[in-house]
Amino acid sequence: MSPPIQLLSPEIINLIAAGEVIDSLAAVVRELLENAIDAQATRLTVSVFPELWQVMVADNGRGMSLDNLRHCAQAHHTSKIFDLDDLWKITSLGFRGEALFSIAQVGQLTIQSRDATNDSNGWLVNYNQQGEMSEESTAPMAPGTIVTASHLFGTMPVRRQGLPTFSQQLKAIQGIVENLSLCHPQITWQVHHNKKSWLSISPGKTSQHILPQLLKRVHFNDLQFLCETVITPSHEQAKIEMVLGLPDRTSRGRLDWLKIAVNGRVVRSPQLEQTMLAGLSRTLPKGRFPVGFLLLIIPPSEIDWNRHPAKTEIYLKSLEFWQERVTEVIDKALKLSPITISTGEQNQRVKKLLKASENKGVYNLGHSESNELELIQLRAVGQVNQTYIVAEHSHGLWLVEQHIAHERILYEKLQDEWQLIPVQQAIILTQISLKQVEQLQRIGLDIEPFGDNTWAVRNVPKLLENREDCPDALIELSLGGDLESAQVAVACRSALRNGTVLELSQMQEILNNWKKTRNPRTCPHGRPIYLPLEESSLSRFFRRHWVIGKSHGI
Q: Name one GO molecular function term (predicted).
């Protein structure tokens, strides 16, 4: 049975920053969907008719009794909270008792509902602009609720003219549905625009199953899902869920798919967004941005939702604690570990490579599910074109690009210890600008004037100490913008070059050190370091499951 809908006390009303939240068609959709999710719906249908200024949301949630229907659209009536203490333990998406009342004020509101546990009849109720019931009648229906908001802003022509265009409002509705589907992956979504199917999202176990439906060029195996249980500073249990696009497999041309959610709602949190970007620093190519979704499931006492009418801005207590935990989860996602390595179709590039070869034959590849792989021991067995290290393990082999693997090793060592050493004979630089001099000083070099437009450098990064091209390297460092870019430049210049012949012991040393790096998937410039060729894929390609006699036609 659904809990009773009651009027909030004046004390609570004065504390809640409710305001007017219905400012567009998208806002109507948002509030109705949040109510449906609070009602434990697992199937949601949204119908939008922009030209008619009408929105309809149908759900299979627990529904409402006739008594609740009579009060649900009145101001400050809600079933989510009852007393002042409830404000500090909010677990629902809606709680202020303003949404339906605000919708009734700007349009014609009709609700058809049947209580899933206590009512054999459905009821249809119309409301006036004050949210009071104006008409009721029985309506045969399955358990759940259908809310229709029509003629929205019809009594406010000036306000209608000031609203975003229909295309902008539809884009906002799409964003709302996508965000909620990530937060609540168990829900089936159907969205219609003018009676035509527009969006369809199938349910999944986690948001890793949802995100590929929203980003068509992102595949399930391009993503890594991690879930961690943590104990908060207040000694309560919380959970962190993260879906991260692996940097060697997927990225975006702009920062539009790094989303953060708290307790089932996507929110704006610049601090946590910067934490995620910092955790993925130097894993993507220049001008590319990560794909990621972070969901914090936090005790209600750790959050203050009363910062914004749309509940998109919150106050998160113990922010530094959550930033540290998020960084730890990102580190785990990027490492090569049993959690993050899978066999078979984990790498779409390998699948396409084998598929291209298969197309030249007369047979078809089979398909199998990916399974987690034991933590592998890589053994160097050879070198291809003096560029790629061939590494064997119990489940197949990998090709590791030796230069960028070594570059990743050196870069992380430089991050841990930026060591400058004095040189016996100063290195003379000429024709450099004051801006370049300032950059060299910024990264710790001892540089001083040595004549007309000439400068003497007295110390250098340790890796450059014995290099003949040290002056050229210093010029390159002077063109950077910060210490990090200088470390990347030093690592790149110092890493062994492709075309270098290596002994097996040297290859093995590179493999061992590379596996231990914090971000082994890509080099500091964002290039992928390794290509896996798993035994399962090779076995299918070479048809090792065939019976020899049968394959010869016997």
A: mismatched DNA binding
Q: Are the folds of 8-199 and 376-533 the same? A: no
CATH of 8-199, one of 3.60.21.10, 3.40.50.1820, 3.40.50.11810, 3.30.565.10: 3.30.565.10
> Cα 364 to chain center, whole Å?
35
Which pLDDT score, from 0 to 100, does residue 17 have? Answer: 45
533: nearest Cα among 388, 357, 390: 390
28 φ, ψ (degrees, to nearest 5) = -60, -50
Q: Which fold has domain 376-533?
A: formyl-coa transferase, domain 3 (3.30.1540)
Model pLDDT, residue 82: 47
CB 306 within 8 A of CB 243: no
Q: For residue 119, what pLDDT is reported?
A: 66
What is this structure's pTM? 0.79
Which tens digits make up the pLDDT trace of 352-400? Answer: 555 554 454 433 333 333 333 335 689 999 999 999 999 998 778 899 9
In SS3 terms, 142-157 reads as CCEEEEEEECCCCCCH
Instruction: Give start and end residues of each alpha helix (H) in 368-423.
Output: 402-416
> Which fold is adopted by the domain 205-337?
Ribosomal Protein S5; domain 2 (3.30.230)
| Size of the chain, expressed as the number of residues it contains | 554
CA-CA distance, 344 to 540, in Å (whole number)?
A: 10
- Rounded-to-integer distance, Cα 544 and Cα 547, Å: 8
Question: Which residues is 114 bridged to in the sheet?
Answer: 144
pLDDT under 70 in the chain at which residues? 1-21, 76-97, 119, 305-312, 337-376, 545-554
The DSSP secondary-structure symbol of 222 reads G
Location of structure tokens 């990530």: 182
Q: Which residues are within 8 A (CB) of 70 and not within 5 positions of it... i.e. 6 or more apart?
A: 125, 133, 136
Instruction: Pull the structure tokens for residue 211.
Output: 């995100």
